[in-house]
Amino acid sequence: MTIETLKTDGASLTLHLNGPDWDGACAATLGNVSFKAPQTGAALLEQALARVREVGMDRVLGPMAGDTWHSYRFVSESDGSPAFLMEPANRPHEPLIFADAGFQPVARYFSARMSLENNDPASLPAPDGFTVEAWDGRDPDALFREVFALSSQAFAGNAFYMPIAEAAFLDMYKPVIPLLRRELIFFARRPDGALAGFLFAIPNYAEGLDTKTVILKTYASFVPGAGRHMVHACHVAARALGYQTMIHALIHDDNRSAARSRQEGGQVFRRYELLGLKLDV
User: Fold this and answer.
1) Topology match between the domains 3-108+273-278 and 131-243
2) CATH of the domain spanning 131-243, picked from 3.30.450.20, 3.30.70.1060, 3.40.630.30, 2.130.10.10
3) I need a labelling partner for 1 at 20 to 30 A (CA). Which of 75, 165, 171, 265 fits?
4) Residues 169-188: what's their mean pLDDT?
5) Which CATH class is domain 3-108+273-278?
6) What are the pLDDT digits (tens) for 255-265?
7) Is 134's pLDDT higher than 70?
8) pLDDT of 192 over the 80 cut
9) Is the pLDDT of residue 230 over 90?
């Protein structure tokens, strides 16, 4: 990946010149955005756009650190509550600088929270064609290799998807291994043991080690009904462990899981946007 770091006094970003496909063409991406002041940020953003034009590209996405495996999205609305673990964050003026440069939203997302204390989820019908089991806590490298393999297939059809190497994926998640709770990670498996889905949840350690909040970070499946069963299992397990709140994190507005979050009683507390700009070159 071709990465350039642009920096001035009070502003910095990384420019990735071989980002994901956007409407049939490769887009550049602008990641790790840090604009301490609007004036210096606007000047650096214009410098980055000039560089994109210089190399003959005409599409830019941001904020995105190269691809959707890494940090991306601006916070666009918030109830003011502190950021949760692994949540994107930005200064309020940073998305305004992008908007002033002509960027428009190309995808929208939200996070919602639901109470586990007063939630007694009804039992679901028995799974048909798969079983749901919690991770046994052994061999975390094997866990993430399985998650990577399924994610690479399940998310390949998503907008702005780009493949990455397994080694790069493992490097991203190794730092969180000490934070994992095996009771909050689930697999759906077919009768032959093949992986049919996974769900990854983690306590919100941004609140401290005694947090009472769990983040449902991501899940995916290839078997109808597996996602619903894994979410149900996660809610039940989290409640049994004494957690009081579940965060349904970073859901695309048009994703099926958005409707599921609403059905479960999720209340939106944060919204996010990925921005894009098509240049005249």
Assistant:
1) yes
2) 3.40.630.30
3) 75
4) 91
5) alpha beta
6) 888 888 888 88
7) yes
8) yes
9) yes
Encoding tokens for residue 246?
A: 């579940």
- pLDDT value of position 259: 83
The token duo for 53 is 């034009």
Q: Token pair 């350690």 is at which residue?
A: 205
Q: 23-27, 98-102, 205-209, 260-264: which has the minimum mean pLDDT?
A: 260-264
HEC per residue, the chain: CCEEEEEECCEEEEEECCCCEECCEECEEEEEEEECCHHHHHHHHHHHHHHHHHCCCCEEEECECCCCCCCECEEEEECCCCCCCCCCCCCCHHHHHHHHCCCEEEEEEEEEEEECCCCCCCCCCCCCCCEEEECCCCCHHHHHHHHHHHHHHHCCCCCCCCCCCHHHHHHHHHHHHHHCCHHHEEEEECCCCCEEEEEEEEECHHHCCCCCEEEEEEEEECCCCHHHHHHHHHHHHHHHCCCCEEEEEEEECCCHHHHHHHHCCCEEEEEEEEEEEECCC
Q: Provide the pLDDT confidence category of residue 126 given band limits of 50, 70 and 90.
A: confident
